[in-house]
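Example record

One chain of 223 residues, shown exactly as stored in the release files.
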Amino acid sequence: MKLYMHPVSMTSRPVRLFIAENKIPCEEQLVDLMTGEHMKDAYASINPNKLVPLLEDGDLRLTESSAILKYLADKINSPTYPKDLKQRAKVNELMDWFNTNFYRDYAYGMAYPQVFPNHKRPSDEVQTATVAWGAERARNWLSVLDKHWLGSNDYVCGSQITIADYFGVCLVTLGEVVRVDFSAYPNVQRWIGNMKKLESWNRTNEALYSFANAVKDAPFVTC
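Predicted structure tokens for this chain:
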């Protein structure tokens, strides 16, 4: 298998973490987002979406982080993607929730326009309004995650870790780049702490924290 990825990519990180934790043999191919390599013909011919990650396994190519996690979990028969129909449905529900309701506002509304120049809006007025709207919406989603999905649970689907946790925590910890104060969401903070106990967490997230350190003095609107 080969994983086309970038170590700072929020959607590459959960796949890399799952692979590392489960010691799945997989070659990594860096696609340098910072130099625009993903937009060039060589990579676009493999993935017309011009995004990472992309997993190759023989003649199979998968381009969505959520789909890749499900495939890998099934491939190794991991309990993190339960076989029970109702339990699996809950995992799917949480992954869809993170990928749509939560991440749309949290990342593309609040964080990305401040962190990545290609996401910055065309005028200061639009930029300010976009980020303020995204931050307001992100607070709501973090509150839903804190009180509804997590509550007293150790993980988002209950007492056992699932691929929804791998997926979700790597999206949520984007907030560490823009200095989100997770203490306002104590169950989220506790859950992040649980996930950071994974053996491979520090190693697979080294690039994220290096990036966060590089922008540590930038003024951010946060939630």
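Notes: DSSP finds nine helices and four strands in the chain.
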